[in-house]
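SEQUENCE-TO-STRUCTURE ENTRY
===========================
Question of interest: how does this chain fold, as expressed in backbone structure tokens?
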Amino acid sequence: MARRELQEINAGSMADIAFLLLIFWLVTTTIESDMGIKRQLPPPVPDDIDIPQAKEQDVFNVKVNFLDLLLVEGLPLDMDQLKNKAKDFLIATGDGVMTHQIDNQEIGKNRDVISITGANGKTNAAFPEREWVRKADVKLKIAEYEQIVKIAEAKNKDAFRKVLSKWQEKLKTITLLGGDYKELPPSALISMQNDNNTTYNTYLQVQNELQSAVNELRDELALAKFGQSYSKLEEVYGKNKQDKRTLDKITAVRALYPQRISEAEPRDAGSIYY
């Protein structure tokens, strides 16, 4: 009886089929990606720059313990109150440009610094004291640094040009806003500290509330002065990076409401906040 020959398997065709299946999977499958928190990290601080010491009223302290409970400015606070509390801090003594509404309370262009006694028994100013940026003063600074740049040594010119550019930006901001404005002190910021056992969901909630406080104030200002929300201005500029006019508007809004959200090193589980 004749032996039947075994047919060879065409491995080349199987490889083709496997490759086609892989392509099909890549085309039709949705791969989930983790969404991060939008943050622009500050540049490194040069060694020759003195870092200003923050006054107690210039820091908005937010702490989250291992039970996911908030301690804000030394006192317990519910999550749904955090955003408005942060907005109140950022408005501070008024931005000098417009009034804001928070919890049925109207905050004018200017308001006096009031003192409060915290849970630690210390009496401090309730919020940072904004400083006026006036057109006359800015013009004098521009004229001063233009002269300095002219006579400065070559190795120092770039540093002085950067300072000059900052003052020129302030003048653009005054022009776009239609008058003088008040800026936060350089040391004013929001500081967040969580526990190592704080849940990730609570951590994200706190971040979102703090970010929303900044975003809403920016939107209010941009709508009042430019007829568009801040987020819309960013969208417009994102589509056309050559649109310097829109960039100047974005810069003006950021000058009044900068995003300064700092994260302190997490505490060990069980640390007592309150």
